[in-house]
Amino acid sequence: MPRYDLTARWLEHGRRLGASAEAARSRHTTVDFGVRLYERDASIGGGLLAGALAYRLFVLLLPTALLFVSGLGLYADAAHKSTSEAAKEAGLHGLIASQVASTSSARWLIFILLVPAVLYATATLYRALAIVHGIVWHGSGRGARVTPRGIGMLFGALLLVIAAAQIVGWIRRHDQLGGLAALLVYLVLAGGAWLLLSLQLPHRDVRWQALLPGAALVGVGLLFVNVFNVYVTTRLVEGRADTYGALGIATALLLSLVIVGRLIVLSAELNAQLAGPERSA
Question: CB–CB of 163/189 below 8 Å?
């Protein structure tokens, strides 16, 4: 039977690869580290945790985007400018600028109602981050606590990442040779923001330098996500809005959030793996 022969060959090929991987673990520490990192991720359900974080990020993004749009509309009213002019001054264009221009007249009411919604979404996101880090570092998220300091640090980190993206855009627009400088600025700001937040999240009693690898991973990952969104997602959605519509925007957004969630989980796993096994008291 050809079908059964093909299955048998694939099974034999898989066994040989497994044996080769086990042999490589004993010879190469990097291979052993990668396998142990994969096993750690599989044991705690890293993919499911990343999906949960993506959902919390989406819940935070919705009211935050509406708050930003309504706030920009309020600024346009106070400055006696049109919403289109205010959007251009803020560096917005295309689809986002049109959303700012189409905001309703009840901007004050929308802004006031969205402030507590953003605070609540930030608190729930921080709690999810604390639980994930507790699971990665200690095997359980029961001891994760939500503190005002941690929530404030998370909010500040999000603002710093947004500011980093704006600074990178400004450097690119004003300096033709500033690509490398923009890259370094984004990595320092985004990675530094995540490092400060990681100090507030559950982890073992390690020095702050032990959290640097995860912060660097998040910084590099966010940079690639930002570049992909700027050069691929945004142009694809704006250029074919009639074809894809809201479904295309939601798909691209959710894909980015899932990648960010995966980066967060992997950063915690990387730090915990490099820090070594937890010592019993």
Answer: yes
